[in-house]
Write a structure and sequence with these properties.
173 residues; alpha+beta; Immunoglobulin-like; 2 domains; five-stranded mixed β-sheet; 27% helix; elongated; binds copper (II) ion
Amino acid sequence: MAIFPRKLEEWYKPLASVDKTWIAASVVIALVMATTTLAWSFADPSHQVPTETFEVAPAEFREMASSFADKYRGSTIPEGTEIYLAAVQWAWIPKELRLKAGVTYKVVISSGDVLHGFSLIGDDGTVYNLMVMPGMAYVMYIKFDKPGVYEIRCNEFCGLGHQGMVGRIIVEG
Ligand SMILES: [Cu+2]
């Protein structure tokens, strides 16, 4: 049987009203998403992807974070201190940070081994989310307005102990 190309009129079917509704709905959704994304980035520029990064060997960064953890274990980190936070299988180094409310801290985050994710979600709406790649350090500026305990979780599956990879930030008033 020979194949005859169909004429356009045979392919073309006018849009049904349900199709028009879905097209209109998707345009509206796309516009709302584009608008809120833009508005959010202007309204709160502190919640942006870190633009300050540098290369660092995973083993070297693990060392930096370990000596930082040893130095400040159990004590409140003074204003102006550069914080080193390493994600490793399967913990955060240091596993606990004591910070002061209302102070902006410079936090350098990287991985000591494989790919991890940094996720901080506070009850008060504080949200930080970041992919933590081995070999790259990310600089974040973090400020907590309210005292409390904030959990850091790994949000990138990194092996058997991934779900137990929980750190804490204790914010003091
Ligand atoms: Cu993980």
